[in-house]
Every structure is written in structure tokens, then in C-alpha cells.
Amino acid sequence: RVGLHVNTVRGHLELLVHLGVVTRETEHRGGRGRPRVLYELASEEPRQRDAYKTLAAALANELTILGGTDQHTADQAGMLWAEALVAEGRLRATTSSEDAVSQVTALFSDLGFEASTEPLADRIYLQACPYAAIREAFPGVCEIHLGLMRGSLAVTGSGLAVRDFDIDARPGLCVAHLEATPQAATSPTR
Length: 190
Hints:
Structural class: alpha+beta
Number of strands: 6
Strand content: 15-25%
Largest sheet: 4 strands, antiparallel
Order of helices and strands: HEEHHHEEHHEEH
């Protein structure tokens, strides 16, 4: 009815099952042949927060269908996202490394992570990932968040960059290791 291949529809339905929006049941019948798989809208409406997870999963699924998300594409998306955040006033230019790290940490907290840093401000810790349920099926979600972090640090103009990003450094914890870029090391201090 929708003009899509059955395997494409099945992939979308499985994503909706994974997110709890749709239920799946195997038809019980006595005849020969493979039983049909029946899908039905789940009885409970997802909460608003789950709606964002559903959207993120749908977008990640679409990226997977289109060929995945390489880090270059994710970095470009992150830079565009960060520039939009500057226009909204959620990120601003600064020469202070500590201020830049504070802004990015606050941004990721607003996105639903338990984000924190340490006194040296050379690492950002991300815990309680709101996308953990879809991360295994769609690892591009992590690449996009890394792109956003790189873009956010770049638009602050602080001279900080992400050196390494450890996904699941410990279960439930991702760590971004930061460093000053060569430009920051040679630019005069104010």
C-alpha cells in the first residue's frame, strides 16, 4: 500500500517494536506454511521524551538505510547544529577553555545526558545516555554527538578540540578527552 519493499517496511516496523510504539505477534494457525507476523500499535502513547527517542531512532535508521554515518558527515552535521545553537544564544564565543567546557557540558546536560567535567576541564564525561536504547542498532548516534561536541567547541573559538572520544569507557560512561589546538597554543592570550 505504501509502495515500499517489504524488507524496508519490516525494518521500520522492527524499529518501532524496539521503541515500544508497536507490538509484534506471530499468528497462530493450524494450517501449513509459515505463520504471519502481525504488528499493532501499542496500547500506551509514548511519553514526550520517548517521542524524541523515536525521532532519533527513525533518523538513525534512515541514515543507516542511506549508507550509514561516517565521522566526516557527522562532524559536518555537528558543526551545522552548533552554528544553529549560536544563533539561538545557547553557545557563545569565549577565549576561556573553562567557559567553553562549561558551555558544552551544560549543552549535553540539556540534551538529557548526565554531563560533567573536572577541575582541569580537559575531559567531559557523559553518563545516562538518553540514546542508549538505540545506540547498539544505530551507532551513528554516537558519531553525531561527537560531531556536535567538536562543532560546539569550534564555534566557541576557545581553541579546544576533542582529541579522543571513548564510547563506553566504563559501562554507561563516555569520555571526551580535550586538547588545545595548535592555533590556540600560538595565539596571544588576552
